[in-house]
Amino acid sequence: MLAAGSSFKHQHLSAILAQPPGDDFFFEVHAENYMGAGGPPHRMLTALRERHALSLHGVCMSIGGPDALDERHLARFRDLVLRYQPALVSEHLAWSSHGGTFFNDLLPLPYTRATLDRVCEHIDQVQAAIRRPLLLENPATYLAFASSTMGEAEFIRAVAQRSGCGLLLDVNNAFVSAANHGYSAVDYLNAFPLERVGEIHLAGHSEQRDDEGAPLLIDSHDRAVAPPVWDLYRGVIERIGPTPTLIEWDSELPDWPTLRAQAQAARRIMREELHHAA
């Protein structure tokens, strides 16, 4: 059973391979970094896969976009799933392309019936291609649409029920969005369909100021997980039990022991819950 893991960064490969393999430690890779046919990225990923389970995380599928999915991109995504047999496969509830133009960002969606139809259609297409359930990740958002007719947790529940997909709960995203929009992260998680969660993300965030001088949290993945995010995570684990948990850290990279220690902290919380439940 997978326990805790982290983002895979090639700078850490030698340190990872120097330690004994762990049956329950897994690594997440972004699918788009491995869509070439071969070369050093695949050699490194093959060496990693021989010792550890993988979580394949897509970032450019544009699940929520108005256009049809890119068939070539989906085929490459499918081929990666077949090649590496990851334990977990996920994508974002967001859009990133329109009219043939790709935007290097995960952009938010209005939560409407039309968006629900489109997202479910795209998820059905992905799941048919990869022949397994997809885990859909809740976003970090910095604006809300006046046209939305349902809340985010309600929307995600409807998507999961209709498409049969699982969910990737990003606890840091939940915290960031709640702070930015002025609602309770605890209330959001109470409304979230936790019974569909197959993986959890934790990450660090930074604080900026918006144009009016108000605080704005950014899902920056450039530092350790913040204490209030750990508190939310502990509450989730108390409710749903141990769940594969991954630490995202994508810039301002620490050394491998520092990153691994974050994953070990998540593992300790899960072990404590097992002890209390026994």
As for the number of domains, it is 1
Structural class: alpha/beta
- Overall residue-averaged pLDDT value: 93
Strand fraction equals 15-25%
| Oligomeric state as shown | single chain
**CATH superfamily caption:** Divalent-metal-dependent TIM barrel enzymes
The assigned CATH architecture is Alpha-Beta Barrel
Largest beta sheet, briefly? 8 strands, parallel, barrel
Strand order of the largest sheet: 1-2-3-4-7-8-9-12
Overall number of strands = 12
H/E series: EHEHEHEEEHEHEHHEEEHEH
Question: What low-confidence regions span 5 or more consecutive residues with pLDDT below 50?
Answer: none
CA radius of gyration is 18 Å
Our measurement of the CA-to-CA distance between the termini, rounded to an integer number of angstroms, reads: 18 Å
CATH class: Alpha Beta
Task: Indicate the percent of residues in helices.
Answer: 40-55%
Number of helices: 9
Topology:
Blueprint: E1 4-7, H1 13-17, E2 25-30, H2 40-49, E3 53-57, H3 71-84, E4 88-92, E5 95-98, E6 101-107, H4 113-130, E7 135-137, H5 152-163, E8 166-170, H6 171-181, H7 185-191, E9 197-203, E10 206-209, E11 215-218, H8 227-240, E12 245-248, H9 256-277
Parallel strand pairs: 1-2, 1-12, 2-3, 3-4, 4-7, 7-8, 8-9, 9-12
Antiparallel strand pairs: 5-6, 10-11
